Here is the input.
Amino acid sequence: MPTTKDVLGTRGYERLRRAAQTHREDLVLRLGAEVGLRPAEMTRVRLADVSSHEDHFFLSVRAEDGVAREAYLPAEVEHDLRKYASATDSADDDPLVPVSARRLQMLVGEVADRVPEVGDVSSRDLRWRFAAGLLDDGVPPQVVCALGGWDRLARLEPLLDEPDRDATVAAMADEDGTEASALLHRTVAVAADVGEGLTRAATGTEIEQTVCDRLADTEGFRFAWTAERTGDGLTQSCGAGLGSERIQAQLGEFADDLGMALEDHETQVVERSDGALAFVPVTGDTTVSGVLALGTEAPVDDTERKLLTALGAQVGHAVTAIERKRLLLADVVTELEFDCSDATAFTVGLSGELDCSVDLSGVVPVSGQSLLYYLVVDGAPAADVLAYAVDDPTVTDARLIENYGDGALVEVVVSAAPALTLVESGARVCDLSVEGGAATILVDLPGEADLRPVVDAVVDAYPDTTLTAKREAERPVQTDVGFRERFADRLTDRQETVLRAAYHSGYFEWPRGTTAEELADSLDVASPTLHNHLRKAQQALLTEFFTETPSRRPPSLGE
Here is the structure.
């Protein structure tokens, strides 16, 4: 049983903040004590992960393999984040504190050393202050656990006092003396319970079935089921407490309410004589991937509705993270090849209109349901390509990177595309080539993935698209040692020396532990020579990291 208490308290935290000498020091303290982040989580904070709901802000807290949870972001801290990003000229996708977790732990200790009366303070003490502050404000312990990423209520026991009779009466009644909603208490408990179950699930289907089972077994809930978004519709996925035929009937009967949940990203409630039906959007990083439907024995109030919406986001983030991890680690993948001649797709329309070829150099999924394309265009002037992009309603931004005369390398952000639909369905784009107004798109998915929803989604959105090839392929096993060896083969001895020295001297940290001039003096090289070696070494590292092992194109379905 942990015995740690809130050693800082409100006054101690105020003293600590006054002792901060830089904007970054103050921001780190606030992220720990007011948002509940661990040092490793602070290093991954980006403006792109901040979202709003009504007048409140939330932060998608990232782990190494995706979003781990959603934290509540006080308005003042949100303002502080944007102010700091502006001062450091950070882009939305840039980590705001790009240093090691160990460096942030040291930073907290350095600030605490300036305030002897608060004693030894660590980043863990900041999180205790976060939890204690919320509990003092009356936030339920289960919600505090969810916001702070604690895996069980026992973690907070040192901060919880044994309740007396007056406290028990107050906890069980609202301000007007009426008994608080029993369903509300059970919903909070289920959210915490489900959170623990999600950490043990291995697939997205297991996550959804876990949620349905826990909810259906909880007093006050009659049944639960989930449906995945496929194209413009929904396909039932998992369920508990209700048969498949009844689920299918409800999908048709309540199509309008389900559509509103998908469109508005908010829980929709239908009150009936035998209870209520709640349709909860299952929200991943930026999109609604499906719906969680619940049958309750009593009406659902606004507070319960908000808790259910938060539960849907929790499930969505967990599904997204685990599917990404499975795709990255899968030994066997399914390769799908599509032909698309739908001119509403930017690359297809561009090729047909300008009689040029288009090849994919790189693609990056970005927040806000968009894809960042890097396209090599051959056979059309750069000005014509950019002019076409400006007029295309699916293009939100475009710029020229390199002009080849009768061709160009361009960066294009699209808000709709067959490749984007495939990415939203869990696929990874491997190749895209367009010639004469016809595109060939190659993607892969985990070997055991359900392919029908993926194919249906892209064909429903772009009718002039057909699946032309499908095959199973083995992905070469990538080991840490193998990666290092291949990377080392790309470097000269001098590049490796410069890169190692830069890393160990803190050159890549912010603020930098050493300048380029100081590093050049230490290595006895000219500053331009140092920059040249560093740039080539970094290029080699990124090339090894981002270059995929070429895979043979799958045979056509007719072969």
